[in-house]
Amino acid sequence: MSVIGIDFGNESCYIAVAKAGGIETITNDYSLRATPSCVAFTGKNRTLGVAAKNQQVTNMKNTICGFKHLLGRKFRDPVVQNELNSIPYRVEERPDGSIGICANYMDEDQSFTPEQITAMLFTKLKIDATDALKTQIYDCVITVPSYFTNAQRKALLDAAGIAGLNCLRLMNETTATALGYGFYKQDLPAPEEKPRNVIFVDFGHSAIQVSACAFNKGKLKMLASASDLVGGRDVDSMLANHFSNEFVTKYKVDPRTNKKAYLRLLTEVEKLKKQMSANSTKLPLSIECFMNDTDVHSSIQRSDMEEICTSLFQRIEACMKRCLKDSKLTLEDIHAVEIVGGSSRIPAVKHLIEQIFGKTPSTQLNQDEAVSRGGALQCA
Ligand code: ATP
Ligand code: MG
Q1: Atom of ligand 1 nearest to the CA of 276
Q2: Per residue in 206-235, pLDDT tens?
Q3: Under CATH, what is the fold of the domain 188-362?
């Protein structure tokens, strides 16, 4: 029976499976490898994944995205309070201090726990895997951030249980990446030799995780890890804030006062951000009929973005330095720095890696799928 590896990301999920001596990524019903971590309610229907994400702008209040950090936390938790700033749906505090996610479903205002919402998403992953592999799927390995507490881990296990998945193991995302790196390597030092030390940087949507790992044949030792809740979405919101300020002076409209307009702006700046990773020239931003029927125009280039996001890059730098210090490795001890996670494509992050670790970042791993593949390898 097949066991799937699930990377439950704040933005998207990936599923991998060990098959015929290799690891395969499972595609969803849209033939996509990434499934948005998104659950939506429309009248009497529930939509999940790609379909849910696609209708977000027209159904903001009932489209639940970005709930990974709500799991296993109380409503008053400062992290939750911070999440609420960027969440377009309603979240309530329940009498016991826990979180209720509010949405209209079956013509009724309902409140769901983060575990229930996560379970709905997992149901979708389970169906996609079942369809792709043409066999019933129950067993899985789910990856979690290394900084997840016991309460967060328990909440995730509960979600898996509600979805009818048997989670054989929760595996740290950092360990999964490292396992994916070491598993097929034939040339690792023998057990009695000096290990090969590799730094892994996973810069995703909501967080950065840096880890230092020592490899010998058949052995993987985590030396240190550091993390910070800073991710690609923070770049997006800083850019959106920058353009909002500009539009206030230029067009007398403030997107921050209108959730729908702000969401449209976020979508556009995310596209620009990705273009800026590949391109250092000036890029245009144009949104038609934006607010009060005004068309808005502006432009930005990579160097502007780097200036706007200075504080974020400082946090990333500090996180990398913390891991290096805790690992007690010298720069000469480090064999390579491997990068994964969507946001590790940002050139400024690659420059920081070169500065701090004295190595050009390497992309031996599949940046998007490394974590889920490591999860699947665990049970290969
Ligand atoms: P997390 O690990 O925080 O739970 P995740 O695993 O869902 O989140 P990833 O899929 O690793 O996150 O990364 C998604 C992020 O990467 C998004 O913020 C996206 O905008 C960003 N991203 C993807 N491609 C690029 C690119 N070419 N340049 C810059 N950022 C990118
Ligand atoms: Mg991730």
Answers
A1: 28
A2: 999 999 999 999 999 999 999 999 999 999
A3: Nucleotidyltransferase; domain 5 (3.30.420)
Ligand nearest 343 Cα, by number? 1
| Inter-residue contact 91 to 99 (CB < 8 Å) | yes
Is 173 among the residues known to form the active site? Answer: yes
Q: With a threshold of 0.90, tell me whether the complex ipTM lies above it.
A: yes
pLDDT digits (tens, 9 = 90+) for 298-334: 999 999 999 999 999 999 999 999 999 999 999 999 9
Residue 274 CB less than 6 A away from ligand 1? yes
Q: How many Å lie between the centroid of ligand 1 and the Cα of residue 342? A: 3
Structural contact between residues 5 and 141, judged by C-beta atoms closer than 8 angstroms: yes
According to CATH, the superfamily of the domain at 4-164 is ATPase, nucleotide binding domain (3.30.420.40)
Give dist(CA 70, CA 102) in Å, integer.
Answer: 13
Given a contact cutoff of 8 angstroms between Cβ atoms, the answer to whether 113 and 101 are in contact is: yes
Q: Whose CA is nearest to atom 6 of ligand 1?
A: 9
Cβ–ligand 1 distance for 196 under 6 Å, the answer: no
Domain with CATH 3.30.420.40 in the chain: 4-164, 188-362
Nearest CA among 294, 224, 311 for reference residue 255? 294
Distance in Å, CA 296 to ligand 2 centroid: 33
Look up 68 and say whether it is catalytic.
yes
